[in-house]
Design brief:
It is a multi-pass membrane protein. GO terms for molecular function: transmembrane transporter activity. Belongs to the binding-protein-dependent transport system permease family. InterPro entries: AA_ABC_transptr_permease_3TM (IPR010065), ArtM/GltK/GlnP/TcyL/YhdX-like (IPR043429), MetI-like (IPR000515), MetI-like_sf (IPR035906). The chain is mainly alpha-helical and about 270 residues long. The protein has a single domain, classed as Orthogonal Bundle (MetI-like fold), CATH 1.10.3720. The protein contains 13 helices and no strands. Helix 6 runs antiparallel to helix 8. The longest helix has about 30 residues. It is flat, with a radius of gyration of 28 Å. The model has no long low-confidence stretch (mean pLDDT about 85).
Amino acid sequence: MSTAITDAPAKKKLSPRRRAQRIRWTQYALLVAFVIAFALGADWGQIQSVFFRSDLVKATLTEGLPNAFKNTLVYTAGAFVLGLLLGTVLALMRLSSVGPYRWISTAWIEFFRGLPAIVVFIAFSLLPLAFEGLVIPYDPYGTVWVALGLVASAYMAETIRAGIQAVPPGQIEAARSLGMPAGVATRKIILPQAFRIITPPLTNEVILLVKDSSLVYVLGLSAAGYELTKYGRDLASSNANLTPLVVAGFCYLVITLPLSYVVRRMEARQKKER
């Protein structure tokens, strides 16, 4: 008598799409569980007292915040202009056929890209000790513009160099065939196209400068020269509460979030044009 042997049905495999869906829903479930656990376990009264005291929010907004907000914008704008001008010169020197220009530009870029910005600020705060009688115009704005602008110029130089190299070589060849001098062709044809290409990265540089302006505190400024972080720190220390720093942090978001949105729109537009 023969015995029939039947194989067990093979386990059905999930398709890659279903597997991805399960992983995604598992991640959502874990995130929801974490949020619920945090919401149930957090001491909301203590959080409100330490980070969001209503009286300190009002005091922070009304005492010196407008001046600190303005100073942050002024520091950023001045450093960006200086960094852009110097960065353009450095980028052209880096692409020059003259050896010493390339060496100087490379040394400058590598030096200031390798140093933390706070070290540059500390060095500038000590300059009057090294050079007696040295006065930087429009202090403290001039000091911040120069210190932050030097650091920014090193990063912008590489961005601008990449933009110049992204311009089709035929553009400069066509200009030279028409008898246009190299300097005029660079100024009127190459640089405008290069800056159009690198506008999103340069806007990102503005965002970085806004955040780097928080290092101004090492210069030992008076209250009139405070930027957002220094203002928030001093007020937080005097009140033994972190609410002023939280308010200052939200002010940075007021500046950087619109800029981030502009960068995304410009990048999307460039992709469509390609």
